[in-house]
């Protein structure tokens, strides 16, 4: 929501995310060479990325989430059936655009009881504890892209979820590009990480015993139109 604190920023980003990014960058060249030698279609080679419009491959894209449960351990879940688009030109990464839609109703967890709780209506006319039945999809639209290394960037944008809109920034790593051997489409992959404060989107049930901060890990494949 406008005027509210950004729920994720480079200042608040967990240090391990930066450490992982740096460690990953050191291994990218070796990974790319190994992939090509093994005949793997995708490789971490920016020269393979073609400028143009791309559409998400929903069968191979997912958004994982992780939240503390009473401080004992973390609980993990997953969203699938992701859709969206990317506009990119490798010569001008700062002009890239992302528009991504996440169906909240697609949430997958290991407990049937928890999924029912996430999607059930509020009691006696009250607001739902979490999303409620038939929730509107979440939507992320990028507003800026800043390249930080040859294979990484910081992507900022606005996330609309649960009837609220607010800013989010994520660390994005390029993970591979090439031709999909099955459908012959030029494909580009990324992984991204972010940390959100769920209460800023009106999802405050159980906080802070159930963690306010939710770690997001995104794995996405884009196919060239």
TrEMBL record:
Location of the Lipid/polyisoprenoid-binding YceI-like domain: 53-223
Domain of life: Bacteria
InterPro entries per record: Lipid/polyisoprenoid-bd_YceI, TTHA0802/YceI-like_sf
Signal peptide start-end: 1-35
Gene3D superfamilies in the record: Lipid/polyisoprenoid-binding, YceI-like
UniProt entry keywords in alphabetical sequence: Signal
UniProt name for this protein: Lipid/polyisoprenoid-binding YceI-like domain-containing protein
Source organism: Erythrobacter litoralis (strain HTCC2594)
């Amino acid at each position: 929501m406008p005027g509210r604190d950004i729920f994720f920023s480079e200042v608040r980003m967990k240090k391990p995310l930066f450490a992982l990014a740096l460690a990953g960058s050191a291994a990218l060249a070796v990974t790319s060479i190994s992939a090509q030698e093994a005949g793997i279609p995708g490789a971490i080679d920016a020269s393979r990325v073609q400028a143009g419009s791309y559409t998400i491959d929903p069968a191979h894209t997912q958004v994982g989430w992780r939240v503390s449960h009473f401080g004992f351990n973390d609980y993990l879940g997953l969203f699938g059936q992701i859709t969206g688009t990317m506009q990119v030109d490798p010569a001008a990464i700062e002009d890239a655009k992302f528009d991504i839609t996440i169906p909240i109703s697609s949430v997958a967890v290991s407990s049937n009881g928890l999924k029912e709780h996430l999607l059930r209506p509020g009691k006696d006319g009250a607001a739902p504890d979490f999303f409620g039945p038939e929730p509107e999809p979440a939507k992320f639209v990028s507003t800026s892209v800043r390249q930080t290394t040859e294979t990484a960037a910081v992507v900022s944008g606005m996330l609309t979820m649960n009837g609220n809109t607010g800013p989010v920034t994520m660390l994005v790593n390029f993970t591979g590009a090439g031709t999909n051997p099955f459908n012959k489409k030029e494909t580009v992959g990324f992984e991204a990480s972010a940390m959100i404060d769920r209460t800023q989107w009106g999802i405050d049930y159980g906080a802070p015993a159930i963690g306010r901060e939710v770690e997001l890990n995104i794995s996405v494949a884009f196919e060239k139109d």
